[in-house]
Structures are given as C-alpha cells and as structure tokens.
Amino acid sequence: MAKRIDVSGLTAYYGSHKAIEDISMTVEPRSVTAFIGPSGCGKSTFLRTLNRMHEVTPGGRVEGKVLLDDEDLYGAGVDPVSVRREVGMVFQRPNPFPTMSIFENVAAGLRLNGSYKKAQLNDIVEKSLKGANLWNEVKDRLNKPGSGLSGGQQQRLCIARAIAVEPKVLLMDEPCSALDPISTLAIEDLIGELKERFTIVIVTHNMQQAARVSDRTAFFNLAAVGQPGRLIEIDDTERIFSNPSVQATEDYISGRFG
Amino acid sequence: MSNALVTDKRPSTLRAASLPKWTPYAIAAGSLALGIGISAAADLHSKIQWGLIAAILFVLGTYGIAARVEGRRQAKDRVATSLVWVAFLVALIPLVSLVWVTISRGVKVLNVYFLTHSMGVVADSEPGGGIYHAIIGSLEQVGLATLIGAPIGVMTAIYLVEYGRGRLASAVTFFVDVMTGIPSIVAGLFILSLMLIFKMQPFGFAGSLALAILMMPVVVRSTEEMLKLVPNELREASLALGVPKWRTILKVVLPTSIGGITTGIMLAIARIAGETAPVLLLVFGNPFINNNPFEGAQASLPLYIYQQYSQSAGANAAYDRAWAASLTLIAFVMILNLVARGIARWKAPKAGR
Lengths: 258, 353
Description:
The complex is a heterodimer of chains A (258) and B (353).
Chain A: E1 5-14, E2 17-27, E3 32-36, H1 43-49, E4 60-68, E5 71-72, H2 80-86, E6 87-90, H3 102-111, H4 118-131, H5 135-138, H6 151-164, E7 169-173, H7 181-194, E8 199-203, H8 207-213, E9 216-222, E10 229-236, H9 237-242, H10 247-253
Parallel strand pairs in A: 3-8, 3-9, 6-7, 7-8
Antiparallel strand pairs in A: 1-2, 1-4, 4-5, 9-10
Helix pairs in contact in A: 3-4, 3-6, 4-6, 6-7
Chain B: H1 2-9, H2 23-41, H3 47-69, H4 72-106, H5 112-116, H6 132-163, H7 166-180, H8 184-197, H9 204-229, H10 232-240, H11 245-273, H12 277-282, H13 301-310, H14 316-347
Helix pairs in contact in B: 2-3, 3-4, 4-14, 6-9, 6-11, 6-13, 7-9, 8-9, 9-11, 10-11, 11-14, 13-14
Family (chain B): Belongs to the binding-protein-dependent transport system permease family. CysTW subfamily.
Domain ABC transmembrane type-1 (chain B): 135-340
Protein name (chain B): Phosphate transport system permease protein PstA
C-alpha cells in the first residue's frame, strides 16, 4: 500500500523567486518523516511539491524529479489530479467544507471523483472516521455540519477525509499548530497508528513533536533572507536530536540559533 | 483613620459627571419645539426650513449642554453621534415620503380587476382597465433577460476569479467596467440598430437582449466579489483530495457562495425591472395582451407608467393607474429582494452544532 518517495535535485520557484534549491532525499514507506527548520526555509513549499500542490499557487513551478515508487510525478503526461489521489494532504488550519455535513465531508473525496453506492460509502466513512479516532465522538451526528465541531475534531475530520480516498502517502503541513495540547496528543497518537498503513511526511515547528512522532527528521535552513531554502541534513530522528552531523542542526535544536 | 478620610474626598479619576440616558431625546424634543416656534414667529412657510432649524439647534444644543456637564471630549463624541442621527433622518425622508405617496395614491385603483385586465378597450383618459398585459410583458422580458444575462455573468465571474490570468483577464475586467457605465438608452439603441439592419418590428425579446446587456456587468461584479470571499483553503482541500478543478468549482466553491451570488442576481433583476428606455425603443408598448415575447409589441410596467402619464392629457384616471402600477413594480422588486434574502439565509454555510 504505502509507497516510497525519492526526490532528486528538486528546485521550486514562485515566479522568478527561487524558494528551495537542489533538494534530494528518500522517504521510506510506512514511516514518519518530520521536516523541521525556521519559518520561511521552504519546508511547506517542499511538502507541496510532493503532491503537485505547489503549482496551484500562481507562478509556482518545479525543476527536478520526485519518484513515487519509480514513477516521476513531474514526468510527461502525468495528471496532477491522479497524483493527488495517491498523495493526500492535511493542512495547517482545519478546513472542512462548510456546506457539507460530517458524513459528506468524509465522503467528499469519493463522491466528487465518481459514483459510489450508499452502503459502500457508509462503510468507507465509518472506517475512515474510526481510522481518525473520531467515530465515537460523531457517530450520532453525522448529518450535522462539520464546522460545528471543535478545532481538534475538525482537524481529525480533515484527516478522515484525506484517508478516505486511500492515498499511498499522507502529507501533513503543521497539522497541530492551531490545536491545544490534548487535541495535539490525539493527533500524534493517530499519526503513530496511521504509519502502519501510509507513508507520512509531517512539517512541524515543534521539535518535541518531531522527536515524539517521527522515525526520520530532515532539517531545512536558508543561508540568508531572500536566499532559497536548502536541506541541511536528514537522518534518524534519534541521531538528529542527540548527535547531528552538522553544526547548524545542533544550534537550531538546542536553541542557539543564529 | 484620617488618612482614609483624605482618600475618600479625593475625586475619582475614573468617574465623571454624565448626562442621563434620556438627554438626547429631551434635546431633540426641545430643539424641535424651539425650531417650530422660531419658524412660526419668523413666518417661514417651508417645512424644510423648520426641520433644518430644528436639526441645527439639536446639534448645537447637544454640544453646549454636554460640554457644560460632561466636558469637551464627551461633547464632541455626542455631536458626532447626533450628526450621524441627523444624516440618517435626512436620508430617510425621501424614502419614507416616496413609499407613502406611492402607497396612498396607488391603492386607490389597485385591486384584483386591475391586476387581471388589460387596457385593450379602455381609452387612456377613461377610468377602468388594468395592467395585466404590462405584468405579463415585464415578467417575460425580465425573465428572458435573466436567463441570458445571469449565466453569462456568473460564468464570466468564475473565469475571472478561478482561471483568468494575464492580458485576457484584465481586458475582460476593463470591458465589464465599461459595460457597467453604459446608459440604458445606449444599450437600447445598440439593439435597435441591429433590428433596423434586419428590418424587424418591435418585439419583447429585443427588449430582453438590451436588458441582458445592462444586467451582465452587475452580475459579474457581485459574483466576482462573492467568489473571492471563498477561502482559498477550501479550494486547496478539495484539490488535495484529487478532485479536478472544474468539480472543485462546481461542488465546493459555488455551493459555498451560492447565497451571495443569488442575492447579486436578484439585485440585478431589480435594477433591470425598472428600466424604461430600452423597452420604449424596442418593445414599443401595446395596450392589448400579447403573451408571445418573440413576436409583436408588448407592454411592461415601467413603460406603462410612463405612457399613462405622457399620453393621457392629464386625466385623473390615468394618473391613478400610473401610481397603482408604480406600487405594483415596487412590490415586485421588494418581493424579489425578500426572496433573495431568504435564499441567502437558507443556503448560507451553517455553523450550528
């Protein structure tokens, strides 16, 4: 199910501005990879190049290769829509569709992509909500609007919506930054369960979180303001947080940055 | 002990003398009485002068009294508030008087007979007759114009917000701006020139075309604003689920903004429902009932009002009919607005638990 990602020589632009430069890394299947680094260093931009969301931004373009199990996402004739069905995404702010109920939100990815039988949809919605640890809280009000849930529940609803389409990879862009510690814990536990089935990439500003949930950690940095962001190093999380091979990583992690 | 006494006597820095709540009303009543008194004494006949004097007295009196009791800063605050109130009342006067006059003069002949009969066999100077033919004409012309104008307008707005980049988009925006400024008579003349080229007689659908031209830019503008209000995060959420862009627009963006778009379309309909000039040129007017908008002259409500005034040589019966038709037109537009509000409330994204 889960697929492996191989990035080589990836450079991304916003118009003429180079946001990230020459990034190469491998993301192992059925593992959690965390991206850390200061604001503006291109973590989120890099994440968005992994499911071709970067080009949704006006002026966004990409050079280099992203292989998903040996298939180049940026190869000729690749449809970004099918890429996004394989590589799902959860955003920083919970964004359930305001016109849809909880049920419809989870079913949205399937319904908008084709026709399903009602019973089939019921099964998938229940499975996805259980997968996102939300089923017990919402099973009695599936027809209520999704925007009536709390922030943490909304974010888990968005995760349920993302896993309902059965992607191979799940990208998470600071999924807990708008949430309180209890909801954050719920989502971190969930990430631990989801990595059995998906390849997970998570961007976070919270280094404890990276240390808690991830198997491997990548540190991004930029030389100066206006310069493109670069990948400084990627290694096992344990090594990055105890004995990183680059001085800048240690400075950032220990708070002696700058 | 003595220390506490001193503290008690020190004036508080947080409290200050303030006027009671009813003060503005008292000042308003006082200045109104004074204004009427002065005007009567000075033998002024115009009620407008009376009102102006009262308004000036109200603002000055508020400042004077508040400055004495509460201090200058509070006085300025009260003057600003009273100016807002005066401006509100001044703006309300024409609206209330228009509605009042229309209703009081319009109800005289407005009844079921009036709404269900035409002017076919009634001379313009005689009493009797009705506006059935004009209602039919208005509904058909405005309805057809909406069928043409609203979809084109909404789709143009979708193009501008979701797809438009570069030169073509800015050209479209520019021409929409230009179209917003087209006087209705010019839109009418444009269609009239086409009619003359093809040697056609006046008919309802020609009027619809001119009204559609007037309607489109209004729909584009309002729909554009509504689509821009849809958060980008919703579009990205949908795209990230692997939903193609066109389905994202159809199933996520439009449902989220449908309330506002409907309101915009209804307001555009309200605008064109009152247009007289293009109808005068292209539909010509017809005292008989003509249900077919594609052949032969028709009537419409604004045109009917105009013709009752201009062609009746001052007959009171015609004036009454014109007022009653005006009342019907206002009611029609108001019902449309209410419907739009209802749809907007019904379709608005729900936040309930």
